[in-house]
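Troubleshooting log. The previous structure file for this entry was overwritten by mistake, so regenerating from the original sequence record. Sequence copied from the archived sheet and checked twice against the printout by T.R.
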Amino acid sequence: MKQSGEQALRSVIAALVITLALTACNESMEDLSKYVAQVKQRPGEPIPPIPPVWTYTPYKYAGSVGRDPFRPSLDQGSDDERSSSHSGPRPNFDRPKEYLERYELDTMTMVGTFEKGEFNWALVRDPEGIVHRVLVGNFMGKNHGQVVSVSDTKMSLSELISDGTGGWLVREASIALGEG
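Regenerated output below.
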């Protein structure tokens, strides 16, 4: 019995809400009609002019002048012919890879240094959160980077980058303390 009384009360409340909602819809829309009429009477804003159409000027390619676009550029824009001997620095592919050579340099962070005897060690955190000790001469990074110096604020590396023609270019890199 108690439930049927609650259901009846809910039905009455629902009927009242619906009745109020329907009476709100029947209000006069006179003020809205006046507003729409006023807006329609306003003069329209001027339309901006169409932008000018630029005519296409074709580029005439003179194949005998300038660099051949189908030949690869050597050494950052230089078209110098290189000797086939490639007598420059080369990575040692026969040496075993060190652990930190599996990560890119920008994914590692130098977190500190310490000195033991005559050696200055760098502490480097890899992307997995493991801290490694690094000495001058150790290799790290995917570009054959070898640690050249370790100071209290940074470690400097020398990387070997392929020039695309069988030769190698030396690029200096560094990781600063807390960087990464």
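Helices lie at 2-25, 30-41. Archived copy saved in two places this time.
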